[in-house]
Fold each of these.
Amino acid sequence: MIEDYRGLAIFVAIADAGSLSAAGRRLKLSTSVVSHHLSRLEAKLGVTLFFRSTRSMSLTPEGRAALGPARRMVAAGEEALDAVGAGSDEPVGALRVAMPAWGENMRIIQALWEFARRHPMVAISLHSSDRPADLIRDGFDLAIRLGTLADSSLKSRRIGDFSRLLVAAPDYLAGRPPVRTLEDLAGCDFIAVSMIPDAMTLHCEGETAVIQPENVRLEVDTIVAAKSAVLAGLGVRVLPLGEIEAELASGRLVEVLPQWRLSELGIYAVWPDSGPQKALTRRLIEVLADKSMGRAP
């Protein structure tokens, strides 16, 4: 019977992840082991649970019928484990977390390290990327997302705010006409980040202006690379204050048009709406919320 439960749990992981290899990464099992358990379950049930091709897997009618009860079984098992561990002062378990690939001084990452130090019996797997992770497919318990959340099936909680500044290197500004007005700004070279909209909404004494950069000198795919390009004197860019405080203090970066401000954005914890939330996930969210209520993530 234990083998049957294991097979059903692996079946759910395959359905959620979309492939044997993705399910294996999520479960920390080899693809061959995942395939073995699926084949064994199908042989015992006498049905085929997935249509298979070289590029994809999709549920058969029998697979769709089995998925709901199997998912409830997995959720009930996780709920039972959480209930057993809830009365313990020292949590035990594993968490898969996704965060933006920002620098090591980011406040919310420091909060995660503090959580790990405080709870040595919790295994943490951190995925750092500026590209949003698919929480269901990749098996993440929690993700941190910044800015404005798009509508989705994920649950979320706003755990803080962060500020942004429009900055440039002094050498870049010294080599061009002074930037004193929005018209001057429009003539600057900009550094773009491929996954972030270029348009900026600026505020000054009740006035609002939307700037759409026209001179994009360089496009990169991470905030870290954008910061490096700005420090190299290649143009101007909006960057999170928490990423550039040291450079502002040392004068390696300066604020452009400081009389114009950008709105603060939210820091959100998001997690899948696929059953009872892990007690460990709730505990981590509380720690991150407590440490992230300042002005920079």
Amino acid sequence: MSQPWSISASPRGPVSLWMAIALGLTSCTATSTVPQSETTTPEGELQVVTTILPMTQFTKAVAGDRAEVIQLLPPNVGPHDYQAKPADVQAIADADVLVQNGLELEVFLDDLIDNAGNADLAIIDSSVGIDVIAFAEEDHGDDHASHDDHGHDHDEKGASAEADHHHHGEFDPHVWLDPKRAIAQIENIRDGLIAVDPAGEAEYTANATAYIEQLKALDQDITERLAPYAGQTFVSFHDFAFYFADSYGLKAEFLVDVPEETPSPDDVQRILETTEAGNLKALLTEPQVGEAAFAALAKDLKVSIAVFDPMETGETAAMDPEDYFTIMGENVESLEAAFGAAAE
């Protein structure tokens, strides 16, 4: 298995060039969560920058009080809508460690890292070594592969993959939605932090072990609760739930690809047929999007709407590591509501 961390060897470039980066990124009106006042930590304290909400939850769980963990993206902005700010480049320039999900979810990072010019930056790719699911046009992602070290190989395959599957890379990046795979992400983060800060090995190991035990308990609870629905298909708004479905013997269908919001007539017909065939009682929307699009469908099908939170975005309070378990518990409740009498 490849190591989940690396040391950036990018040449130092002036932070003032950040504007050139921003012009190539997707527009968004939200501001960064990394104000200049937060980019300086007490002398000697490890400074860690994370990308999206699950990476922040997992990194905080492992780092504990030994490091300052700062999320690069605003918590209410997903990676598809992110636009860089000058403070974001500076945050990476000042950081010791960058923790990313990987699997081409954070395609904006390459230019930010190059522009930050932090030659000592350690980059932890949390998805290294994880059994991943490849996106496929016909089967919506049933193909599996092992993710050994994709890192920043976007130039070689990113363009073709994006053309084949809209804004996705080759593999589904939502590995954190499966607690089993989340354990592997925790282990990668732990090992990466130890490599940078060997003196903290005991603390990082103890913190990771405690969180992993919680993840194992969550996995067991989900397994027991969803066992009656083995083989059943549920319907979400976006295509983010393949790992969860794979882990618990379910099948996932979706209305539109991330980050699309407007379904085609064929998309609608496919979901109508899936919902009726599975005798589903609810369609699964997201906290930020999907309810309006599902409303008419739900009315026609005489079903309700529940929420499955993919956790790419959330409230600031959701950065707490314990919120992962709260949200996942709520997701399981929504699935139970969706299946209803489907297993009868």
Amino acid sequence: MADQSLQLRLTQKLALSPQLQQAIRLLQLNRIELREYIQDALDSNPLLERDESDAASNQDSGDADREARAGESEIDPVEERDNADWDVARPSEDQWTERSSFDSYSMESQIADTSTDSLREHLLWQVNLSHFSPVDTEIATAIIYGLDDDGFLPDSIQDIRASLAPELLVGEDEVLAVLHRVQRMEPVGVATRDAAECILVQLSVLPADTPARELALRIARDFLDLFARHDYDELRRSTRASEESLAQALDLIQSLEPRPGARYDNRHDEYLIPDVYVTQADSEWRVTLNPENEPGLRLNNYYIDLLRKSGEKDAKYLRGRLQEARWLMSSLEMRNRTLLRVSQAIVDSQQDFLEQGDIAMKPLVLRDIADSVGVHESTVSRATTRKYMLTPRGLYELKYFFSSHVRTNHGGTVSATSVKAHLQILLQNEPQKHPLSDQDLSALLHQTGIRAARRTVAKYRESLGIGSSSERRRLYKRKPTGI
């Protein structure tokens, strides 16, 4: 029998206070979700009430809070708020256009689902019925909330990890394992990165004895571009398959759904309301919060008086609700302060864009704003997700102002958004009889000082939904004269 012994081990563990967890959760909510959250708090906490007036009610709230402090000896948890640190550590949809082989889909696959459930609700329902661990449930929920209307997942594994931190620290392998499980939910192929991966996932779940399944997998994995161009002769030569086998494989691929969210009516009319406003005064750009972001909450004077008069049992309950109310009001104040600071830092970095447009957009990453504001990158990610800024140039999601960079001939950098703007100008003025190839575009950009390889130009061109030079040439030929 092995000897038993006692060991002393020192480990580090991250612990977040309930107030800090609430503040982090509130920061990532958009306006509609925040409104619902506040309404739930009002319904469940009798010490909270809406502040119907402006200055007068603010004064009442301050008086009520001072009275409550006088009536109890507990330490106010809101004292920590000033020192609280919130931080711890698809391809273009035009890929399947008129040149795609999915034109012959049955009408059944193109009709939107008439049920009231959206794709998100349908997937969350499946997660609740599946045997997910609590951690896997949080990961799956983050993945589902990151889907676009077509059911694709535009976020990377790193983005999903960042959205879960700091309250949930997981590895990339954990996120990837949950992602594979979500991709095999109904509709199969959801949460994939592009149509090609979606087709591969749908083929992989078919029975192994499905006719032409292996050939279809090979085509989807290696020759999907030939399939999309209807280049069947080259496809037959590349796969060395018989005409009958190739026809079966193509029919199988055509029977699949390249956009897993198409059956669900996710495109409801949505009216975007800005969270922050940007105005220029005396050559200075200023950011102000939308007044509707202010929750207008105050403490209920009646229950404050009742707290002083109540017995020990009732007083314990009311003190708990009072603490929750103060935490919520403090967290809302912290949310607005962080959103304002992050927005102002973005505006300070992108003043050239506000004055000149996309072509003057500067490279910007989360770390730049995080260092400027003094918070963690995950905090900036939460503060900019599904939050909108109204500028003189239009309404933009805060994430729009972040962009990767391309090197210039002089050793500097230029943002990907600016490169795309340059590309659009070049393509708008290209000769219709001789459209510019990606190599030509790369050379022209190089003359302006932008070092963009042919592959980079092709990637940006596809993200703009613009076809290749051969596709544009065919498009120009089909155009009636005079247009």
Amino acid sequence: MFELVFLGTSASAPSIHRGLPSTLLLAGEHRFLLDCGEGTQRQLLRSGMGFKRLNRILLTHAHLDHILGLGGLISTFARWEDIENIEIWGGKVTLDRVQALLYGVVLDYERLPVQIHLLDIKPGQLMESKDFTVSAFPVVHRGQGNFGFIFQEKSRRPFLVEKAEALGVPAGPERSKLVKGERVTLTDGRVIEPDAVLGEVIPGVRLVYVGDTARTDNLAEHVSGADVLVIEATFLHDNEEEARSFGHITAREAALLARDNGVKTLLLNHVSRRYRERDIIDEVQRYFPQSFVARDLDHFVIRRDQPVQKGTAHGDERDDTEN
């Protein structure tokens, strides 16, 4: 299971209702911040999620609307929060800009109680936990070193207790080994194979997160079969040429990408304040009905083979007539 809390969903500049891009992803005890636009730390507080265990930041690219909030956030971490290590992942161009921001402006001449690790992203797997992996893939946008991210929950085979009991497998270490795929030998000498007590493979949830992108044709292999795709909707189809000139796609293109590649649910963010939200919804749902335009503090719960559940972080109330 993954959870997403959208902290900022605007494009380039904030609006009354939307802050600059930032999303919190929760995976068990792990937390990831995806991009960090201006105002992110306040949104973390408003969401009720706070700063606890928030020690991994993944940056899609180097543009200021996606990284400028790092200055205030890291300054707060350095002064007030009980966080010993922070990992900031990004392409080389992104990390160069982050280093200039943090060490040239925010943290200059300070002795930091927190260790900051700037980690250069290369396509492929970034990390692996007991339950999921995180991978990066290249994205075409203005400039170099732009990335999207895949959060892949590991597949599992349910342990069939009734079969284990019928075979006389005692509760304890033997069952734990079988769950791990290891054979066990019982006290009477019988050898029990994992297949005897494990059910069919249940695939894990696949969540794909794309920041700003100028193309979709190169994303198909990465988003294929995703339970959830998060991607920008900066422009509507009527402004397709303008979208190209700024290195963005349209809401219609995002919908077609999802439809043509077996995506189950589409979550759109990076919304330009030039448009009414209902116009974006109308355009995208014409091609892909299972779509949402995310708002600040929207909270989505993603489970395998269940509809995506949408709520609002920390009970924040907003006007549903928002433009």
